[in-house]
Amino acid sequence: MRRNALAAGLIAVCLWGLAPVATRAVVTHLAPLPLLLIRMAAASLVLLPWAVPVFRRLRPRSAGRLVAAGLLGLVGYNLPVTAGLRWLPAATAGLLLATEPVWVMVLGRLFLGERGGARSWLGSAAALGGVAVLAGPGAIGGGGYRALAGTGLVLAGTLAFAAYTIVLRPLSQEFGAVPATSASTVVGAVPYLAAAGTLPGAGLAHLRPVDWAALAFLALGCTAAGMLLWNVAVLAGDITRVSLLLYLEPVVSVLGAAAFLRERVTLVMIGGGLLILAGVGVASTGRARDTAGENAVEPDPAQQ
After folding, report:
1. Could you give the CA distance from residue 149 to residue 25 in angstroms, rounded to a whole number?
2. Strands, E, within 19-68: which ranges?
3. CA gap 250, 247 in Å, rounded
4. Whole-angstrom Cα distance, residue 22 to residue 39?
5. Cβ-contact 244, 120 below 8 angstroms
6. Which pLDDT value is given to residue 138?
7. Of the four, 73, 201, 225, 241, which is 20 to 30 A from 103 by CA?
8. How far is it, in rounded angstroms, from Cα 167 to Cα 76?
């Protein structure tokens, strides 16, 4: 994996790992839908100057792919996960969200013809084991129909994110990672405008400065910078191995919760985090058996 791809991917994952911490700080004072509206609108305004040139050059085929990417990444991921978290413990949600690299590997195999190789699958299994340890023995416990519905929603969100990663990559190759990400973010934020009517009664006047700071971090750090860096990493490196960095998210979340929310870190959490790091290390250093090299151009998924 190229160093610039690794660095960009690591920064993106660290930002996303802190997203649950920032969201937890705000969601007790602001409902999920207004929160998402403010987050996506602010990120879109920041990215709009890079998105406009893409809109001017769009061909019909690329326009359809852009709309699909925007809806998958901004709506298909965020809405189900936010809704699912109402009915799931954070540990369970963290376990499910950490399956994102598996979906990327599966979809990459189906639509891009990429094979992760033995080391990638072995590292993936080890990292998943670490996530299971991190989540705890009660993470997959019962919870009735609501827990089942929440599990389905969060899994749907992880699948949507994996599809977003793959669908956007040809646009990043055509326009560049930054313009393509910016355009897809703007497009994906449009449906949230339908929730504008929720803002007057959302209690924005009662938000504390720390809440606005957390909102700014979610919009500018997690959505804008995170998405940009992630797609730079995906374009520069092998999509299967870059996606394995997502396993580090639960580690960052636990450390962030301990540092900012003063949550307790146990030896089990430390052990799970070390296992995740080991799994990512094994998988990311392995070579995919069926790729011609990291600079090979993958076939367009629309042509499969």
Report:
1. 25
2. none
3. 7
4. 12
5. yes
6. 53
7. 225
8. 13
- CA quadruple 62, 66, 69, 72: dihedral positive or negative? negative
CA distances from 8 to 237, 244, 245 (A): 10, 13, 10
Q: Single out the residue of 101, 146, 77 nearest to residue 279, CA to CA.
A: 101
Measured CA to CA in angstroms, residue 282 lies from 97, 111, 117 at distances of 20, 24, 11
pLDDT at 48: 96
**Res 44: pLDDT:** 95
Angle, CA of 249, 214 and 45, to the nearest 5° = 95
Question: Whole-angstrom Cα distance, residue 33 to residue 303?
Answer: 36
For residue 83, which of 5, 183, 3, 157 has the smallest C-alpha distance? 157
Residue 155 tokens read as 């899994």
Is 93 within 8 Å of 247 (Cβ atoms)? Answer: no
Mean of per-residue pLDDT scores for the chain: 81
Does pLDDT of 37 surpass 60? yes
The span from the CA of 180 to the CA of 101, in Å, is 21
d(CA 100, CA 80) in angstroms, rounded, equals 14
- For 7-21, 84-98, 155-169, 262-276, which range has the lowest pLDDT when averaged over its residues? 84-98
User: Taking a C-beta distance cutoff of 8 angstroms, is the pair 248, 11 a contact?
Assistant: no
Q: What percent of the chain is modeled with pLDDT above 90?
A: 34
CA gap 56, 78 in Å, rounded: 27
Structure tokens that stand for 265 in this block: 């870190």
Greater confidence (172 vs 97) lies with 172
